[in-house]
Amino acid sequence: MEVEDDYRRKQQLVLLAIVVLASLALVSLLVAFSYYCYISNKVSKRLKIRKRADLEDGGSFENVKEFSTEKGLQLFTFKQLHSATGGFSKSNVVGHGSFGHVYRGVLNDGRKVAIKLMDQAGKQGEDEFKVEVELLRRLHSPYLLALLGYCSDNNHKLLVYEFMANGGLQEHLYPVGSSNSISVKLDWETRLRVALEAAKGLEYLHEHVCPPVIHRDFKSSNVLLDKNLHAKVSDFGLAKIGSDKAGGHVSTRVLGTQGYVAPEYALTGHLTTKSDVYSYGVVLLELLTGRVPVDMKRTPGEASLVSWALPRLTDRERVMHIMDPALEGQYSMKDVVQVAAIAAMCVQPEADYRPLMADVVQSLVPLVRNYRTTSKIIGSSSSSSATKSPAPHDNASSGD
Description:
Layout: H1 2-56, E1 74-75, H2 78-84, E2 93-96, E3 100-106, E4 112-118, H3 123-136, E5 147-153, E6 156-162, H4 169-173, H5 188-207, E7 213-214, E8 223-225, E9 231-233, E10 240-241, E11 250-251, H6 263-268, E12 270-271, H7 273-289, H8 305-313, H9 316-319, H10 333-346, H11 357-388, H12 390-399
Parallel strand pairs: 1-5
Antiparallel strand pairs: 2-3, 3-4, 4-6, 5-6, 7-10, 8-9, 11-12
Helix pairs in contact: 5-7, 5-11, 7-10, 10-11
């Protein structure tokens, strides 16, 4: 009897040991499977992040969509463009883009074009070339400079754009004697129209493209003027795809031009469409004041255009004293106060307080429309007076 009990106890112990070992094996398998799932998920996330980073740092714009169809671009040879610019003659240099000289050229069919020759070696220049080609072939707006074609012969990278006869806005606000272009005096009406058309260009990028495109280097030299002084936004080499989430941002290294870069982007690298709004506000201040964004030659407190102008923009008395003397007072106080208020909102230090470009456009449209109407009324009154002025003389003569 004792032998049987002892045997049964041994069997129970063996069975218990088997159950314990089986349980441990199962737990080990579950732990191993969980760890595998964790690692797989982590790797997947890293790949997604890397893919997103590649997209942000000059990657593909294939996912950018808007309401028009993709444009066909002409592929040029280096020989064609060399001939069109007279061998890239210095006399044909009309400006500088984000990565090279821009030349005036004439194609074999007689079309005038602007040709940008990449002179920046390395990955950044290559990336900027790809960004402009991939982005501009998908976007089309009357307020964006049109890309007609490109050349990619071996080490030669060139972009061919429509020609803008009056060059960059900067050239006319701050004429330089050494420039190949002739500056034009910009009156108040022209400045209002340029401000509106440039705003429409940014509005298109922010509101009519999905996901939105952030220009990232908006400045007065990248606002080009045609023969009739109509404006288009240019130079998309630093453009980024923005976040498709409301209030979202993309993180990227800080690039741009001193004086135009939004403070939150400069500090954190967080880029949003509101970063472009800040840059636009700086250009609006240039149109109002005729001053460059940063001028270290000025007296202390006046070197930074934004810091100097911002306290004055909301003061009706003081704002009149910051106006560009070249305008010779050819504007109404009402217009100045309204434009100054728009500029003040755009250059707010806090991005959340800045308006959308759509709001800026809506604010400028009635100003431009009213000015045109007023100009027409004044013009009609002048011609009417000129027509009627001989009448008294004729009546007097007949009375004699």
